[in-house]
Each structure stands twice: as C-alpha cells, then as structure tokens.
Amino acid sequence: MTTADTPSAPFTELVDLASRLLGAGVVATNEDTFADAENLLVAKPAEFRPHTFGHKGQIMDGWESKRRRGVSADQPHPTDEDHDWAIVRLGAAGVVRGVIVDTAHFTGNYPETASVEAASVPGHPSPEELQDAEWTTIVPRTALDGDTAHEFAVTDGTRYTHVRLNIFPDGGVARLRVHGEVLPDPRELDGLTFDLAAQEYGGVAEAASDRYFSSPHNLNAPGRASVMGDGWETRRRRDKANDWVQIALAGGGEVLAAEVDTSYFVANAPGWADLIGFDASTGADPADGEWFELLPRTRLQPDTRHRFRLAAGRPVTHVRINVHPDGGLARLRLTGRLTGAGRAALALRWFNALPAAEAVAALTRAGLTADEAAALTAARPAADPAAAATVVRSLLGN
C-alpha cells in the first residue's frame, strides 16, 4: 500500500468526495426500512421535525435501519458482529483524508459502533461486483455518541472509488462526509481541454483573503450557482486593499479561457477583477515566488457570466483571482489543457496512489510484461527519472 503525507490543513477544508454535486450515490445497502440511505449524502445539515410520523414511525432525515433481532427466543439479541451497511460510490475518486459520521438528531436510536471501509474498483461496477471487491478498513470500528458529528482522520494514501459505512448492530446516521483530494485517471483527461480549476478534476481553493459570508470552495464547485449563497462572498472592505482566492489547478497547464461568474450577486458584485498565475513545477513556492498576469484588471457587471479568451503562454499550476475592492463571485472556470510536465506529474500521482493490483493491471494493459509491471509497482513511489518516464510513456502512450 502506498502512503502520502497528511495535509497540514484540517481535512474538513478538503472536497467532500461523497458529495451528490460531484456525482456520488448510494449504490447498495442491506437495510433502510426506516429512512432512505440516500439521505446520508444530502448536502445540507440534517433537520429534525418532531411529531412528524409516517407509516413506519417518526420521519428522520438520515439513514435508519430497523431494529435487529436474534435468531430465536433463547437468543433474542443480535451478535456482536451483526451489522447494517451502505456502499457509497464517490463522486470523484481520490485519496481520503478524513471521514465524518454524523448522528445528528439520532439520540435513542444511533448505532453503538461504526466502521468505514474503502475500495478501488475502476469502471462502473455493479453492487454484486462491489461486494466481492477487496475492502480496506480506513476507520476502525469505533464507539459512537448520539447527536454528534464524529470526525475521523485517515492516513491511508491510496486512491479509492467507493466507501462502505458499517453500523453495529443497527440504528441511524444522519450524514456521511468523505473529505479528500480528487485524483482523476489521467488517461481520461489526456489530450482534452477541460476546466483546470474544477473540483471534479482536482482543483482546490487553497487560500483566500476572506470567507466571512461563504466559502471560497464554492468558486470551483460543480454546476451553476442557484442562489447567492452558493458562491463566495466577502465582508465589506473598509481599507484600500482587495480580496482574492488562490486555486491550485488539477495539474500544470495552459489556461486558454476564463469565466468569471457574478450570477445572483446584484448589489454586491466586485467592481473589477484580474487573474494572475504561478508555475510551481520548478519547485518555487507560490507564497514567495513570481506571479504573472493572465487577465488584466477588468470591469465586471452584476449578475453576469463574463467570458474571456486568454493568450496561451506560460504554464501555470496556481491561479489567483483578485476582486476589487470586495464582493462576491458565483463561479470561476478556467478552461485549458495540461502541459507535458503537467500530464506527467498527474500520471505519476495517480499511479503511485493506486492499489498494487490495479497499478500492475494498468501497466500490463498498456503493453508492459507482467514482470516489468510488477517491478515498477513494487518500486513506488516512482521517483527515479527513468522509471518515472517508463510509467508515463506506458500509461499515456508517449
């Protein structure tokens, strides 16, 4: 199993890989008589409305299984290993850095303990195929409290596509969050133009001057904003500075076009915005390196999707949008293509994070012998330049 350094920032600042917005879904569960397992992935916090009863009892905003029973009158209680489970397809495959198991509003009916497992199954597997997959425990079986958001850090550096929540012996969980770093399959992006800043491809809003009203992570979230609260909004500035968000792109690339969207920001859109870029592929640090202009300071209109063609040129790994003096943006889209160095770096990150069997299979399908594929996989992380070049050439074809 490969490992990676744990980020210094709280894992809750990372993308929720189990977000419905990214395409996550509950693909299988053994039991959800009381409340649908799909409720685990609802974006908003769980709510409770007392004395709202349906045919099966109090309506709960979460996943709730029926009460387990033993096998006979002499053994009326479930065994210690009896449990219910739900399998979640992650909306974007990636490295899991932390899990939240939230029992909000479940007080007399929460599980005694829970665990979380993860698996990597490429393609579009059926529930039956997922049951037979190799599952790895990323959160060991742990006691739960009622009406509590339990945070569990994860140090496993493997790329996963699915997680399984196990609850012992039964009960209810309101929400499941799986925070981590998106790590796309480089073969699916190779040769394409796409939104280099998008969460679904690995873009991360890693720093911001202000997040008073809403999160900068909304800037590169999937889809269009539906209300002002879906975007990023700052407090009103009372000095002569400006606000900004810094985004680490999915990979080093050329940004060909930008969309600066002020939809729903009518009385609080910025007056102007500019874009600057940074290339960290040389080892320089964005905190103290040289930034360069991508889009000069440009007038913005309220409630408008602004589209700008940019001159292809210097490669970038990070982009900062500066808004003047303050205000809010709904979305930022940065259409572009990976550079040669960017595609190679992404391919290596992906290869180094794959489960060993999957890494070997990828290389053998690309034309390496079984022995060559096994040797390169065993030597991960691929740091030697010759080995790295072989991996990239095999996976991407050149």
Specify the number of helices: 6
Helicity range: 10-25%
Characterize the overall form. flat
What is the CATH superfamily label of the largest domain?
Galactose-binding domain-like
Instruction: Report the order of strands and helices.
Output: EEEEEEEHEEEEEHEEEEEEEEEEHHHH
Largest sheet: 8 strands, antiparallel
Structural domain count? 3
Which CATH C-level class of the largest domain is it? Mainly Beta
Second rung of CATH, namely the architecture of the largest domain: Sandwich
**What is the strand tally?**
22
Unreliable parts: 1-7
Distance between the termini: 27 Å
Region (Disordered): 53-80
Family: Belongs to the allantoicase family.
GO molecular function: allantoicase activity
EC number: 3.5.3.4
Fold and architecture overview:
The chain has three domains: 11-182, Galactose-binding domain-like (Jelly Rolls, Sandwich); 187-338, Sandwich (Jelly Rolls), CATH 2.60.120.260; 354-396, no CATH class. Helix 3 packs across helix 6 and helix 4 (356-365) packs across helix 5. The chain has helices at residues 127-131, 186-189, 340-353, 356-365, 370-378, 385-396, and strands at 15-16, 25-29, 53-54, 57-58, 63-64, 84-102, 113-119, 136-143, 149-153, 159-168, 172-173, 175-182, 194-195, 204-208, 232-233, 243-261, 272-278, 292-299, 305-309, 316-324, 328-329, 331-338. A hairpin with a 2-residue loop joins strand 3 and strand 4 (57-58). It is mainly beta and 398 residues long. The two termini are 27 Å apart. The strands form five sheets. Strands 1, 2, 6, 7, 8, 9, 10 and 12 form an eight-stranded antiparallel sheet that branches. Strands 13, 14, 16, 17, 18, 19, 20 and 22 form an eight-stranded antiparallel sheet that branches. A two-stranded antiparallel sheet has the order 3-4. It has six helices and 22 strands.
